[in-house]
């Protein structure tokens, strides 16, 4: 990932929090048939420190897992918005401005391990369910489904683990613009209902 210094986020706790918020990621691997990509929800275990391990699963019918072991890249995206040059007060000083896009992106890399052990798969499915159902008024649980049905569904997926060797974060939130332009971006984003991106422009480095 092209990562200018003023857009770089290197703090592991901040990157972990952003991964947890994003939930779903693009899983990219390379095999005999070339590059493969799938879009899957993932979990992040903090161990082994300092970067942790990504966990998830894909359909058994998905050929991606048949590419075997190798390096994998998981791409997580956060808040994003188009930025119009008309929002910059400096536009009046010669017109030397162009459109851009503000966004948060995290790239996580490491060697991927595929597995189909039923106990490991059940643990991942259960944790993913609890993560996304836990705050609901009447959360669904894996144990709500008939056991034989769950066993059948577990046979239809393949799990993966990616112990992370590299973790990069990019918070591209107008840090390269002067204060007046940044304020113009914030005001315009709030008018367009993009408060999450406006907040990030005001404070591009989460505490």
What does this structure look like?
By secondary structure, the protein is an alpha+beta fold. The chain has one domain (5-116, 155-194): Pnp Oxidase, Chain A (Roll), CATH 2.30.110.10. Helices cover 27% and strands 35% of the residues. It has helices at residues 12-22, 118-133, 147-154, 179-191, 195-202, and strands spanning 8-9, 24-31, 34-41, 43-45, 53-59, 70-83, 100-115, 157-163, 166-172. Strands 1, 2, 3, 4, 5, 6, 7, 8 and 9 form a nine-stranded antiparallel β-sheet that branches. Helix 4 (179-191) runs antiparallel to helix 5 (195-202). The longest helix has 16 residues, at 118-133. It is elongated, with a radius of gyration of 20 Å. The two termini are 23 Å apart. The model has no long low-confidence stretch (mean pLDDT 94).
Layout of helices and strands, plus pairs?
Blueprint: E1 8-9, H1 12-22, E2 24-31, E3 34-41, E4 43-45, E5 53-59, E6 70-83, E7 100-115, H2 118-133, H3 147-154, E8 157-163, E9 166-172, H4 179-191, H5 195-202
Structural class, by secondary structure, is: alpha+beta
| Unreliable runs | none
The amount of helix comes to 25-40%
Number of domains: 1
Total number of strands: 9
Quick one: CATH class? Answer: Mainly Beta
In DSSP terms (H or I, runs of 4 or more residues), the helix count works out at: 5
Q: Fill in the CATH topology.
A: Pnp Oxidase, Chain A
- Assembly classification: single chain
Distance between the termini: 23 Å
